[in-house]
Amino acid sequence: MTSERPSECYVYVTLPGETAAVTAGRYALSTDKRGAPFGRFIYGRSYLERSNAVALDPVELKLSARTYTTAALGGVFGALRDASPDYWGRRVIERHLGHAKLGEVDYLLQSPDDRAGALGFGLNQAPPAPRRDFNKTLDLARLQAIADAITADEDAPLDAATEQVENLLLIGTSMGGARPKAVVEDEDGLWIAKFNRPDDPWNSARVEHAMLVLARACGLVAADSRVTQVAGRDVLLVKRFDRERIDGGYLRARMVSGLTLLRAEDTYQSRDKWSYIGLVEELRRVCAEPADDAAELYRRMCFNALISNTDDHPRNHAILARGTDWKLSPAYDLTPTTPVSLERRDLAMACGDAGRFANAANLLSQSARFLLLTDEAGALLTGMLRQVQAEWYGAARAAGVSERDCGRIAGAFVYPGFGEV
Ligand SMILES: Nc1ncnc2c1ncn2[C@@H]1O[C@H](COP(=O)(O)OP(=O)(O)O)[C@@H](O)[C@H]1O
Ligand SMILES: [Mg+2]
What we know:
This protein has helices spanning 45-49, 78-82, 87-97, 104-110, 140-152, 164-171, 204-217, 258-261, 276-286, 290-306, 360-365, 374-398, 403-409, and strands at 8-14, 21-31, 37-43, 67-70, 119-122, 135-136, 181-186, 189-195, 225-230, 233-239, 243-246, 249-252, 254-257, 318-321, 327-328. By secondary structure, the protein is an alpha+beta fold. The strands form 4 sheets. The chain has a 5-stranded antiparallel β-sheet. β14 (318-321) and β15 form a beta hairpin. α3 runs antiparallel to α6 (164-171). It starts with 7 loop residues before the first strand and ends in a 12-residue tail after the last helix. The protein binds adenosine-5'-diphosphate and magnesium ion (MG). Residues 177, 315-316, 333 line the site of magnesium ion (MG). Residues 116, 175-179, 192, 223, 238-242, 315-316, 318, 332-333 line the site of adenosine-5'-diphosphate.
């Protein structure tokens, strides 16, 4: 790199069963002869000598002494990109540093250590001590006010010298996603607090909570959640499934997104790789219980189609490894949408022979790839269709969604073009 910004860092990992990180290897971002970004990663020798060493991901960075290189994704390996902040976290860091555009290594180094998964980054060969200073749920009112200020001020000039800096650090989170959020701790462990935005078409916190409850009722494994009130406003709390509190700290599960499994990018050009069928093939290769995870992904795909969750892109799917084995993570970020079309709605990822079409026949067309018999898939889809139809309203009301918001989201469920099973 020609700029003065850092271009190398150490990569740390918290090993299964442990609460402190160890150094796994070293990552460097440079440019090739034509100036294109180029990333290198190498596992440390002493890391490879550990009997309990684990790979950072199951697809790209297997445990080996070789030097890994990548020109994809701006030179950032998928597992590192997954641990890097996304839209919201990047905004916070840019505001904090007073720069509009930073290097990828800056984002890795500057982001707080609450990121999804078990990785960490730093300039020292030895990893820092685990952080202990999570925000308490009590601070939510303050966090919400700061999130509001940042949201309202999204295009304001960057100024590192304001007192906002302190606030930004307070809310700072490396969790991905576009919505304002913070990580908070209570006696049960760590939660992601997702704040409503003033421009939301309905009460997102309550609606998302209702969808997670409905998903569980429909037999999906979904993240645990609850809604809390802060200064009269609702905040969704989603329990983190990649952290477990034990005496003396937190266990951390490694976590890799669907995007990395599919070796895909966020960009439009990469969209032909966004596919549930591609994803299930990867699950079948890397997960310890392929049949369970394949069936679970099938349920998730059907559920998303039935609630018009058209934001089911590959970053909204992930696999987790709490120990050495990988498995599909619980479902998260389930949000209904109400597109104008009643005839055809598309999921974000291909789900059958007719591409992304959220339609019963299409969802059934490739069910064998999910290791389901035709009859099994049909029965599953019929049952879920009836259940979503019969139960969405009750689930929403029980979650405190208002009558008016129920009217606003009604068109999301089992839209006419979904068709018959
Ligand atoms: N319960 C959870 N435990 C651990 N990580 C999570 C959990 N829910 C979401 N994540 C991670 O945080 C990211 C952002 O969360 P998400 O709910 O998708 O927010 P957004 O609505 O902003 O997209 C996800 O892409 C995923 O990597
Ligand atoms: Mg998301």
